[in-house]
Amino acid sequence: MRTSDEIVLDVRGLTTVFEVPNARIAAVDDVSLTVRRGETLAIVGESGSGKSVLAFSIMGLVSRPGRIVAGQILLSGRDLAALDEEALRTVRGRDLAIIFQEPSTSLNPLMTVGRQVAEAILEHEPETPYEAAMERVVERFRLVGIPAPELRVHEYPHQLSGGMRQRVMIAMALACGPALLLADEPTTALDVTVQAQVLNLIDNLKARFGMAVVLITHDLGIVADYANRVAVMYAGRKVEEGPTVTILTRPAHPYTQALLACRPDVLRALEGKPLLEIPGVVPPLDRLPAGCAFADRCSRVQDICWTRPPELTDMAPGHRAACFVAAMHIADSAAS
Amino acid sequence: MIVGAQAPASAGTSLLLEVSDLVKHYITSSGTVRAVDGVSLTIGEGEVLGLVGESGCGKSTLGRTIMGLERADSGSVRLNGTDLIGLSRRRLRSHRRHVQMIFQDPFGSLNPRSNVQRLLTEPFEVHGIGTRAQRRQWATELLQRVGLRPEHGFRYPHEFSGGQRQRISIARAIALQPKLVVCDEAVSALDVSVQAQIVNLLRSLQREAGLAYLFISHDLGVVGHLADQIAVMYLGSIVEIGPKSSILRGPLHPYTKALFSAVPGLSATPRNAAEERKPALAGEPPSPLNPPSGCRFHTRCPFAVDRCRNDPPSLRAVAPRHKVACHLV
Predict the structure, then answer these.
(1) A83-117, pLDDT tens digit by residue?
(2) Using an 8 Å Cβ cutoff, are B246 and B213 in contact?
(3) Residues in chain B within 8 Å Cβ distance of A276
(4) Residue closest to A9 by CA, chosen among A184, A205, A212
(5) Which are the contacts of A30, defined by CB distance < 8 A and separation ≥ 6?
(6) Chain B within 8 Å of A40 (Cβ-Cβ)?
(7) With an 8 Å Cβ cutoff, are A191 and B285 in contact?
(8) Which residue among A222, A274, A281 places its CB closest to the CB of B194?
(9) Using CA atoms, how far apart are residues B197 and B209, in angstroms rounded to an integer?
(10) I want to staple B194 with a disulfide (CB 3.0 to 4.6 A). Which of A264, A305, B113, B163 is the partner?
(11) Does the distance separating the beta carbons of B245 and A274 come in below 8 Å?
(12) CB–CB of A12/A71 below 8 Å?
C-alpha cells in the first residue's frame, strides 16, 4: 500500500534521561519523529546512539533509573507519555506492538506458543472465548508463514528455530491489529536467508494491515531495501532525517556519509580498496563534548563545531541534518 | 615437503595448509551431528581464505578442528606438510605457535585479571622465548603494531572498547609470528564504524607480515574485503570454493546465489519500499542432526531434480581453481 497522509506516531521533543549517582545521562535528547500509516521509518545508529531507548520510551517500557523528562508521544493523537501504567497496558499490544531482537527472551519457555499468543488476544478482548482466540492464533500463524500451524500452536518455544520464534513474536504483535509496529533489530539474531523472509513478511503485513512501522537497525542494507524514510541517530540525538534514497545517495551529515563509506560492500571489495574508517569510537553519553558529539571523529570539523550542538537544518524538502558545515554549504549555494 | 602432485594454492605462493577429507561428528542422545563432513581445502602462504555460511553450517567447528581445539574423527590437517591430527600433545604445542585464533568476543578470550602487558608477554613465556625485559619490549611493539599506545599496557581488558579489545586479541594472536590465523567472526560483534578499522588492520598485518588467514564470517561484505579465495559451506560440506572475483562476480551454486541475493543491499540502486521484493530462499537450514540425503541443499533448492535427492554431488572444477558441488552446474 502507499503511504497515506494520516500520521500515526508523532513524537515531539522526547528526552529520556538516566539518573545515576553524579550523572544525568540523556540517552534520548530532544528527538522528534513522525510516522504515517503504511510507512516504514528506519532509525539507524550504532550501539550507544539511543535508538533502543527511543523504542522503549515509545512503548512506555523505560524503568528507573531512566525516565522521560520532556516531550510528547502522540499515538493517533493520544499522548502516551502522559498515561499511567494501567492505561499504557491497554494501549500496548492493542494499538502498538514491539518485536525484539531475541525472540527467545521474550517468550515464556513454560507455555506453548499458541497459548501465549491467545493470552495476548484475551488480555485486550476478555469477552472473546478461548477457543475463538485460539482459532485466530492458528490463522495468524498461517499468515506469518508458520508451517502446520494447527500443530505448532501446541509446541514450546525451545522446539522452534530462531526464525520460527520470530514469526511467533510477529504473530503475537499482530494479534490485535496494532496501528504501529516497533521492530527493534528484529533480524540481527537470524541468518541472512531467514532475515530476508522475516523482513519481507513484516513488509507485506504492513501493507495488509495498513500499519506504520518503526524499524530500528544498524544495517544500512536493510534500510535500503525496506524503509521509506530514515532517521540517523548519534549519541542520543537525531543528526539527519530524510527519504531513504536521499539519505543513501546524497547524505548531508558527515557521520551518515562516513557510515555509508565504511560499510563493507561486495562491489567495493572487488575494487580492492581498503575500507574508509571513522577514527575513534562513539563517545560515552556521560562524557559528551560541549559542541557536536561527532566533532572529534569528523573529517570536516570547524571551530564552530566545538561551541554548541548544531540544530537540525533543512537541506531539501523533507531532508534535514544537524551539522554546521552542511548548513553553511546549503546557505552558500542558496546565496549564489 | 609437499607429497604428491598437489598444485600450489595460488600462483607465486607455496602451500601452507592442506585440509583433506576432514570429518568431525558429535554423537548426541538424539543422533549424530555431522558438523564437518568431509571438507578439503588449501591455503597458500600469505593467502586469505574466507569461509562463509549460515549458523550451524559447521564453519566454526571446522576452524576449531583445524586449530586442534576439537579432535577430528578422520582426515588430515597438514601445516607445511606435517599432519597435525594424531600428533602428541607436546609436538602439537610446538606446532601450535604457527597457528593462532581470534574469536568473536574478545571479552571472553582475554583474562580480565591480567593487564594488557601481561596478556601480551604470556605467549612468549609459555613458549620460553626471550628474557623478561625482551618480552616487555615485544609487548610494547605489539601494541604499536595494532594501533594502541604503550601506556595501554598497564590497563585491564574492561577499560577498553570492543574495538580496542579486538586489537588486543590480534596483538596476542600475532605475538609468536604465526603463519596462519584462524579468525572466527572476529569483527561480527563490532559497530560498523569500528569494524572497518579492524578489517583494515587485519589486512595491513596480513600484507606486512605475510600472514595467512582462515577468515570465518557470515558477512559476505567483510569476507569480500579480506579474502583471496572464498569457500561457501552448507550443512557440513563446502558447496563452492574459488577465487574471490569468480565467486562474487559469478557464483554458480544455487545456495551461493541465494545467499548473495538475500543480503539486503546497497550494491544495487536502493529500491523504493513499495517495489517488488526479490524472492527470499524458502525454508530454513535443516538440522545437521539428520541432514537430507543426496545434495543437502535439495530441500530448499528451486532447481532440484530427482538425482539431487539421492546422489550427493562432489566438488568438481568448473574453471581453474573454481569448484562447485552441484549436478546442474
Answers:
(1) 998 899 888 888 999 998 877 778 899 999 999 99
(2) no
(3) 196
(4) A212
(5) A13, A14, A15, A70, A71, A237
(6) yes
(7) yes
(8) A281
(9) 18
(10) B163
(11) no
(12) yes
By the 8 A CB rule, do A80 and A180 touch? no
- Would you call A26 an interface residue with chain B, using a CB distance cutoff of 8 Å? no
Interface test with A, best of B59, B185, B188, B193 (most A CBs within 10 A): B193
Which conformational region is residue A148 in: left (phi greater than 0), alpha (psi within -120 to 50 degrees), or beta?
left
Using CB atoms, pick whichever of A192, A224, A226 lies closest to residue B262.
A192
By the CB < 8 Å criterion, does B302 face chain A? no
Describe the crossing of helices B254-262 and A192-209 by its angle, rounded to 10 degrees: 50
CB atoms < 10 A from the CB of B149, how many?
A: 9
Find where cell 586489537 sits.
Answer: B167
* Interface mutation vs chain B, best among A161, A225, A294, most B CBs within 10 Å: A225
Within A175-219, where are the H helices?
Answer: 192-209
d(CA B327, CA B307): 8
- Distance (Å, whole) CA A277 – CA A299: 11
Q: Which value does ipTM take for this structure? A: 0.78
Read off the C-alpha cell for A282: 562513539
Are A262 and B267 in contact (CB < 8 Å)? no
Cα separation, B202 vs A106, whole angstroms: 37
**Å from A196 to nearest chain B CA?**
6
Residues on chain B touching A270 (C-beta within 8 angstroms) = 224, 244-245, 248-249
Question: pLDDT digit of tens for each residue in chain B (329 aa)?
Answer: 333 334 444 445 699 999 999 999 999 888 888 999 999 999 999 999 999 998 888 999 999 999 988 999 999 999 999 999 888 888 888 888 899 999 887 667 788 899 999 999 999 999 899 999 999 999 999 999 999 999 999 999 988 888 899 999 999 999 999 999 999 999 988 888 889 999 999 999 999 999 999 999 988 889 999 999 999 999 999 999 999 999 998 899 999 998 888 887 655 433 443 344 555 677 777 888 888 999 999 999 999 999 999 999 999 999 989 999 999 98
Q: Is the CB of A47 less than 8 angstroms away from the CB of B191?
A: yes
For testing contact with chain B, the best of A49, A191, A270 (most B CBs within 10 A): A191
CA distance B300 to chain A (A): 11
